[in-house]
Amino acid sequence: MTAPLAGIRVLEVGTMLAGPYATLMLADLGAEVIKIEPPAGDISRQVGDSYFASLNRGKRSVRLDLNDRAGQQRLGALAAEAHALLVNLKPSAIQRLGLTYDALRHWNERLVCVAITGFGLDAGDHPAFDYVIQAATGVAALTGDPAGPPTLPGYSAADNSTGLTAALGLLAQIVSGRGGQVEVSLRDVMFSQLNYHAAAYLDTGAAPQRRPFGAHSYYVPAQLFPTADGYLALFITHDGFWKSFAGEAGIEGFTTMAERVARRAEVLAAVTAALTGDNADGWERRLRPLGVPAAAVRTLAEALELVPEAVVTAGEHRLIGSPIRVGGYRPRYGPPPALGEYGERPPSRAAR
């Protein structure tokens, strides 16, 4: 089957994670992604081969110095044959290097230009790394045990989420048939992902609370629980789930969601006591056939042992494959590009 994005050419001036992850999603779906790198290459090449490969497999690399006239001319020539340009740099650098729709539209009126920044193209160059954004938007304050310090997730939640959002914005504008400027900021994406927390505060003034074991604000019980060995994530969102779980765990009462919310402390005490009767893996095996949402807390290594089909090969690297499944299509996972493997310009479509 022809790749969903076959024939789409996307230029990337990206560094580290958010931008390269956005275009990785597009490359896995068949887009031709040309990574425009400075003479020394994307700084993520210095982090490690596996890091770089995980974000840049299947792309092409062109080395350009966008600070000189020749580099700008070659950028324009590439833009003339592209559908989109995705950038994640400081706003001042994006403007200075001419990586906006206004700067490039004379080369290609239908070019879609996507800018990933920390706070917006017009918001200045305040440092905007993933962890900084999580701290600034309230995510860190919501995470961790209430008796302890705020906590950051163990992966780049803001960068990855922003990359996905940017890829969506890029494709939406291509589908519209119009060129133009698209902006996506890490701050705005994380505010968006705080959706129901923010809505509750804005509508009623109810500030979200950090709860033990990551407990959900509305559903009870929906959190991590200790067991005889290991921790279990349990997510009871309606009375049917509770009936099945309570029957297996030997808990009586609390039959409605409203009652469980009103008597949260009693429910959590009953569930915690019941779960000491088996280990986390045992509870998962017992609850899964009943349709109850539950999973033992595992390490990444343990999780991948159970889902080997998530791992793909790209050149010499073993990586996690695309999360998007399209009927009849299987991605071709090419290796990450060597720096400047196409010099200053890849072959034209006609030549390939």
Sum this structure up briefly:
This is Crotonobetainyl-CoA:carnitine CoA-transferase CaiB-like acyl-CoA transferase. The protein is an alpha/beta fold and 352 residues long.
Textual characterization of the structure:
- The structure is a single chain.
- It is built from 14 helices and eleven strands.
- It has helices spanning 18-28, 49-56, 69-80, 91-96, 101-104, 130-136, 157-176, 186-193, 195-204, 239-249, 257-262, 264-275, 280-287, 300-306, and strands at 9-13, 32-37, 60-63, 84-88, 112-117, 180-185, 222-226, 231-235, 294-296, 311-314, 317-320.
- The longest helix has 20 residues, at 157-176.
- A hairpin with a 4-residue loop joins strand 7 and strand 8 (231-235).
- The strands form three sheets. It has a six-stranded parallel β-sheet with strand order 3-2-1-4-5-6. Strands 7-8-9 form a three-stranded antiparallel β-sheet, with helices on one face. It has a two-stranded antiparallel sheet with strand order 10-11.
- It is of the alpha/beta class.
- It comes from Nocardia goodfellowii.
- InterPro entries: CoA-transferase_III_domain, CoA-Trfase_fam_III, CoA-Trfase_III_dom3_sf, CoA-Trfase_III_dom_1_sf.
- Keywords: Transferase.
- This is Crotonobetainyl-CoA:carnitine CoA-transferase CaiB-like acyl-CoA transferase.
- It holds the Pfam family CoA_transf_3.
